[in-house]
Amino acid sequence: MNHLIPAQAGAQLVSLAVYVMVAVWYVAPWLARRKRTEALIALLWLHVFRYVALQIFSAQQEGFPISMGGAMEIVIGDVAGAIIALTAIALLRLRANAGIALAWLLVIETATDTVLNIRGGIEEHLMGAAGGVVWMILVFYVPAIVVSVGLLAWQLVTRRHEAIKPNGALQIAGGRLQEQS
User: Do residues 78 and 15 make contact, with C-beta atoms less than 8 angstroms apart?
Assistant: First the structure.
């Protein structure tokens, strides 16, 4: 039996469980004390770094047995997620409703990307094949992404009636974004 398969799967499940506990005990109460926009932005920042998936090409060179098609599927999904997240943050900072739409798009994109990556990993027999940086990403970053997208969806649903616009209009004055009274 390949001991690497249960080691990787076990580590991913433990990380997932730990992130869920942190989310329930600390993150959810912290989010509840924040304005809707601030809460969404905080959750979106974790997704901005999904371009770390580009490391798959280096891993492939070092012997990680993923096909070029599988690698491209991962990279396209994660880089798209990073771009969506960063754009949503910028729009939310401007108090634009399009930021909410992009946050929803990120939830859908991430759920789809996760399912496709699991399917691809099963088809290519990749469970237990990861080592080094790929192992660290799969064990620590991917479970964080899964939990954060759940929190993001929860915030989008439960706080959907909260406005993202402040009382006054926003204007750019002296090169800085300011709220008008």
Answer: no
Question: DSSP letters of the chain?
Answer: --THHHHHHHHHHHHHHHHHHHIIIIIHHHHHTS-HHHHHHHHHHHHHGGGGGGHHHHHHHTT----HHHHHHHHHHHHHHHHHHHHHHHHHHTT-THHHHHHHHHHHHHHHHHHHHHHHHHHTT-TTT--HHHHHIIIIIHHHHHHHHHHHHHHHHHTTTS-SS-SSPEEEETTEEEE--
Tokens of 77: 């999904």
165 has pLDDT over 70: no
CA distance 76 to 111: 14
Of 27, 51, 37, the closest CA to residue 89 belongs to 37
Task: Provide the pLDDT for residue 37.
Answer: 95
| Predicted local confidence at residue 39, as pLDDT | 96
Across 82-112, b (16+ Cβ under 10 Å) vs e yields bbbbbbbbebbeebbeebbebbbbbbebbee
What confidence category does residue 166 fall into, taking pLDDT thresholds of 50, 70 and 90? low
The stretch 34-48 carries a mean pLDDT of 96
